[in-house]
Design brief:
With about 290 residues, the chain is an alpha/beta fold. The chain has 9 helices and 12 strands. Strands 2, 3, 4, 7, 8, 9, 10, 11 and 12 form a 9-stranded mixed sheet that branches. A 3-stranded mixed sheet has the order 1-5-6. The longest helix is centred in the last third of the chain and has 20 residues.
Length: about 290
């Protein structure tokens, strides 16, 4: 059986089973703002940095889904394309993904249905060095025992939106199964380290990254405007996985959603300040959204 082994366990998140479980539980215990959740949740947007930075927000999304849906059969995870340079969305269409929590089975039937209808490819190698999907899988394994996954690296382009629409149609046709889409993206990467300093290099610039640049992405996501979000993200560099986010929005829209719910929005600087008592001249934004 084709098996993808973890590549960032021990770096982005713990490499040992018990340490993974303990860390997830710590995130689940953290207080969250009271939000009116949708009665049904069909999709979510999560960040994908190391768990120190992204774990609490990812936990909020998966916990919200768990609160509304005890049983989820499959999570389709649209990932960013940090090192994959193909134009077509790339599915990991068979086998299993291994994490410190065990094996997560690929939904091969769903993969076949998507490959039959969408302009996508099955490309296992495309996933060999991509972390944006991997860091979500332990949350799914822990909170949704037995759920299958379908990883899809989703480059930014029109095909991302078309893929999301196809996925939405397929999910709608499978009324007996609960399938949830997850879009994995961080937000504005601001500072000298990232070569992005349009407002200078000072604390006010980092505020701009959070309150203006990130917020453009978030507002378009909440209004479920996939094409506008994709264009805005490319123009303003406010997401590293705009294709993943656009596909998620397109699927949610197809499934009848008209708005999203923002669970949390923060950045790496705020987290560093809270956890380590230090700040940086660079910052990365993170958002947790459900639809």
């Amino acid at each position: 059986m084709q098996t993808r082994k973890p590549i960032v366990a021990g770096q982005f998140y713990p490499a040992q089973h018990d340490s993974c479980v303990d860390e997830i539980n710590e995130y689940l215990k953290q207080p969250v703002a009271e939000k009116q959740l949708p009665k049904t949740i069909v999709a979510g947007i999560v960040p994908h940095a190391g768990w120190t930075f992204s774990g609490a927000l990812a936990a909020q999304v998966f916990s919200a889904i768990r609160e509304q849906h005890e049983k989820v059969h499959t999570f389709i995870i649209f990932g960013a394309s940090h090192s994959y340079f193909g134009q077509a969305p790339a599915l990991y269409d068979k086998g299993v993904w291994t994490t410190p929590l065990g094996d997560a089975l690929i939904d091969e039937e769903l993969a076949d249905a998507i490959l039959e209808r969408a302009s996508a490819v099955n490309d296992l190698q495309a996933h060999s060095s991509e972390h944006s999907i991997e860091v979500q899988v332990p949350f799914i394994q822990y909170l949704f025992a037995g759920a299958k996954i379908l990883p899809i690296i989703t480059p930014p382009g029109d095909q991302a939106i078309l893929l999301g629409e196809v996925v939405g149609d397929i999910i709608a046709s499978k009324e007996s199964r609960k399938i949830v889409c997850i879009g994995s993206t961080d937000l504005t990467h601001y500072g000298p380290r990232y070569g992005f300093t349009p407002m200078g290099n000072n604390p006010e610039a980092l505020d701009w990254a959070e309150k203006i640049n990130d917020r453009q992405f978030i507002d378009l996501a909440l209004k479920i405007k996939p094409r506008e979000l994709l264009t805005n993200a490319i123009e303003n560099q406010n997401a590293c996985g705009p294709g993943a986010a656009a596909a998620t929005l397109a699927a949610a829209k197809k499934l009848g959603k008209t708005k999203g719910t923002l669970l949390a929005h923060t950045n790496s600087n705020k987290i560093m300040q809270a956890k380590m008592g230090t700040r940086s001249s660079d910052s990365v934004g993170y958002a947790a959204i459900v639809f």
